[in-house]
Prior knowledge:
It comes from Oopsacas minuta. This protein is an alpha+beta fold. The protein contains eleven helices and seven strands.
Amino acid sequence: MGNAFRYTPFPTYYPDFRVPVTADTVDAGIILAYVTVFFAFLVVLPGIRGWLPKLFILMRVTFAIWLGLMISLGNFGMEWEIGDIVTTTQYKAFTPIELHDAHIGIKMGLRGINITLTAPEGNEYGETINYNERFFWTWDQGRLGFGTQAGEIAQQFRDGQWRGKPYPILWIVEYFTIDGEQIRWGRKYRTSGWYVHAGLWVCFCLWAIMCVLFLFSIRSGGWILTLIGALMVLCIIIWSTNNINDPEIEFPFEDAILRLHYGAHWYLTLFTGLISVGLGIAIVLLDIFFPIQIAAFFGIDPLITEGVLATREDDDEEEEETKPRNRLQKTIYNLTKGNEKVREFRTTRIKGRTQRSGRSVRKENNEVQLEKLTEAST
Length: 378
């Protein structure tokens, strides 16, 4: 094994370890999953009869898949806050080389921060400068310092120092490891990420419930959709208000100051929340004022539910009207109920006896008693 991967008399050669630094594989995987479900739906869509039912189902399923995709991207996306600059900066330890026109970018998500460092060709002899490092703060704050009991981002920062990562990357991460006085940027972002990610998980569960409710209860599904939108807007408020830092977090470099601003996932979550609230309220109002039309759009038969409800209401009203109010009426009510229970087979028996003998049949004792009580009550 001593000569493995070795080209004598040169040192051991190891192949490049390729990693997907140019794309977010988590976002790509989430998008691929929902797109796969959508294309599977498109395959079975031609089997539905009628162009109008096809259109209605296409609209409902497309919105449901889009809403689930936005919730998932908001939960796992790394662009809640972003920032980038082009500047001159020192490269790394043990070298006096400076990077000119270096591009430094930050993408911040609910679970951590992603930092990129790129520079034009020719800044370093034979080296391509294209770094992409991700640091997580999930979810414990940990103790002060950089030991085994410290927070995850503090331990990753110390590991980056040992590995000799570029100074611009370590310079940015160090801001999130400080936790004292009013400088608690890492704690605030970690706390905000915790509550927002929990809220978006609740939205995802409600989204699954909403998809089921719209199959048989339009109004309930509309209320759930409104609740999903309200929770998403609440997540935006939590992230925005909890991260109001004093002093504001800034990363000064030689030629520019790197500042953060809201990114794509922040705006997508806000937009989706507002749209969900508006559509949810609209669906509830349409179900109240135009139940037949909205039921046709969702493919639900409104007569089934309305018929069951109407029958139950009529039965309750009839029972309330015939309910006895005094002792005499209670006795008549009980006798009437007793006669109804045996009326079917008794009528058949009486008819048979009358046809055979040709004379009338004597009334039963409880029937005579019932007639007397009825005359007395009137």
